[in-house]
């Protein structure tokens, strides 16, 4: 599974975990990724995307057609 959101482009960030004694160790902050199926009416099929919860809200606001067109352009570009 990809470790980034295909809609928003969010990736893991890195930082430090600080213990009670104030020792610092490296840690990773992962985005909340979900593997979701979305129905695209113009293509009469489902598409499966790895999206963050913010990406799901973006799809709800802008519509799957607009977001899917942008994702396809980005995939084609490389």
Automatic annotation (TrEMBL):
GO terms for molecular function: structural constituent of ribosome. Keywords: Ribonucleoprotein, Ribosomal protein. GO terms for cellular component: ribonucleoprotein complex; ribosome. Pfam families: Ribosomal_L28. The keyword Cell inner membrane does not apply. One of its GO terms (biological process) is translation. InterPro entries: Ribosomal_bL28, Ribosomal_bL28/bL31-like_sf, Ribosomal_bL28_bact-type, Ribosomal_bL28_sf. Belongs to the bacterial ribosomal protein bL28 family. This is Large ribosomal subunit protein bL28. It comes from Klenkia soli. The lineage of its organism: Bacteria, Bacillati, Actinomycetota, Actinomycetes, Geodermatophilales. The gene is rpmB.
